[in-house]
Amino acid sequence: MSGARQTTVAVREIVGLLLVCGLAGAVVWLHYDNAKLQSETTEWRRRNAPVARLAEDNERARELLAQTTNVAKTAVRDRQREVERLRAEVGELERRARAVAAQKAAEVAARLANRDPEQALAALENFRNVGRGSPATAVQTLVWAAMQADEATLLASIALGDDAREKAQQLLARLPEAARTKYPTPENLAALMVTREILRADAAQIVATTPVDVRRATVSVRLAGADGTETVATEFAADGWKVTVPKKLLVMLEKRLNPPAPVAGAKK
After folding, report:
1. CA-based nearest residue to 126, from 135, 113, 109
2. How many domains does the chain have?
3. What domain range is 151 assigned to?
4. Between residues 118 and 43, the one the model is more confident about
5. pTM, 2 dp
6. Which of 1, 120, 164, 223 is 20 to 30 A from 186, comparing alpha carbons?
């Protein structure tokens, strides 16, 4: 029995030794295989490094393209909104321009149709010779005379105060003989400036008459295209009401006849 046990122990020891040796060999082979695998992996990575970099570059390019596309889309949307806004503004301006043009056309038509300047704006050519029985009619008749170049009615419709007459006489004294023949009286010079002032506008309205005293009154006149009204002085004479020509009109004529001398050294 002891011999059999010894044989069994020996067999077990041999088997154990063989197992240890096998395991050791397997471990050594595994280490070798692992080292080989790592080497192959390193070599694969080295060989495929350009491909990996290319893939990374492609990914970055895709991201950049996506960002650029988003920026471009945003820019296009913003541009489209701006174009739409500008189109809306242009459309609104065109609408307003058409409305203003239509309004002006309607106003012009109304002025041309109106024959009574005491009611609303009327074209100057629609003013009539209505006599000089009142301050308002004297103004309308004066405008009619200026538009028709009716010198007799024009001269009969104006009056000069003492200061205006004196200024007119001074101007007459300095005029050449030919001019004095054309404008022989202070009223002729005054009529020249009155006509010039009347022709500044193409339509007017006689708004109101305000008495000053029993022989004088002011007439408020609104000119087309002007803000507010202008005041026209009138006075009563033996042959009816007349428009009083202010001295300032003769002063304006004097400046036109005698322009100021140019300042020395001034640029032309």
Report:
1. 113
2. 1
3. 122-257
4. 118
5. 0.63
6. 223
